[in-house]
Design brief:
This is Aldo/keto reductase. The chain is of the alpha/beta class. The chain is built from 10 helices and 8 strands. The longest helix has 15 residues. The structure holds nicotinamide-adenine-dinucleotide.
């Protein structure tokens, strides 16, 4: 899985087609969508028309909450594949654990079956907490490869990163740029950007890569799509990494997964 990919949350289907096309042209080879984003069709079409072989693209989609349950999940997966216009995904994720439904273990069994059939090359989870991850791993035959969680310098999730690593999962950062807003004006990030001849966004993405996170920034602006991929020609020092690490302030943007159902 490429460590740097491209996300399309909140991007309407047509625009997803345009921005995924731009991203693939810019060099991205990993694309992150979900049933609930309502843009699997445009995303799949952009991949098919890109001129890049399907096997050279790493495609992720996710199972929405109301599709949980063993048989529901099998049906939802088929529907996602059809919208994506492909016969496999590289990674299929349970989008949220939704602990009050208490269906994530039986849902996982469906993902294990899909994985066994080779229709999802890898399976994983998103927004799993330490408690839900612990239970899932205890009951799983196939351990999830990755946990995609909210993670950015204002919410750096050292506890969940450690919990993922303890179970052998990669950590993938969603909203890696903190959705752009206040984070990218942070004086520390702006200063580090000026020192390295890079933007604050590039500094944040570099921080993720050096921490070992998989990262999937989103943009619909072609110049920013390219800018966010141009992060492989500089390196943050240990001191830079510490300064960014010290920005952590419990700045969660999205909901607490324990309460999502
Ligand atoms: P993000 O942190 O990637 O921020 C995107 C926003 O930042 C853009 O809309 C734009 O306003 C700004 N931006 C992007 N590049 C910039 C640049 N170079 N300079 C200045 N501003 C810039 O936010 P996101 O879209 O929430 O997260 C990324 C991806 O993570 C999503 O598209 C989706 O694929 C995934 N995601 C998953 C979940 C989940 O529950 N699993 C939740 C949210 C997002």
């Amino acid at each position: 899985m490429p460590q740097l990919g491209f996300g399309v949350w909140q991007v309407p289907d047509d625009e997803a087609h345009r921005s995924v096309s731009t991203a693939i042209e810019a060099g991205y080879r990993s694309i992150d969508t979900a049933r609930i984003y309502d843009n699997e069709k445009g995303t799949g079409r952009a991949i098919a028309e890109s001129g890049v072989a399907r096997e050279d693209i790493f495609l992720t989609t996710k199972l929405w909450n109301d599709d949980q349950g063993h048989d529901n999940a099998l049906r939802a997966f088929d529907a996602s594949l059809e919208r994506l216009g492909t016969d496999y995904v590289d990674l299929y994720l349970i989008h949220w654990p939704t602990p009050a439904r208490d269906t994530y273990v039986e849902t996982w069994k469906a993902l294990e079956r899909i994985h066994g059939e080779g229709r999802a090359k890898a399976i994983g989870v998103s927004n799993f907490t330490a408690a839900t991850l612990e239970r899932l791993v205890g009951e799983a035959d196939v351990v999830p490869v990755i946990n995609q969680i909210e993670l950015h310098p204002y919410f750096s999730q050292s506890g969940m990163r450690a919990a993922n690593a303890a179970h052998g999962l990669l950590t993938e950062a969603w909203s890696p740029l903190g959705q752009g807003k206040g984070l990218l004006e942070d004086p520390v990030l702006v200063e580090l950007g000026a020192r390295h001849g890079k933007s604050a966004a590039q500094v944040v993405l570099r921080w993720h890569l050096q921490l070992g996170n998989v990262v999937i920034p989103k943009s619909v602006t072609p110049a920013r799509i390219r800018e966010n991929f141009d992060v492989f020609d500089f390196e943050l020092t240990a001191e830079d990494m510490d300064r960014i690490g010290s920005l952590d302030r419990d700045g969660r943007i999205g909901p607490d997964p324990a309460g999502v159902n």
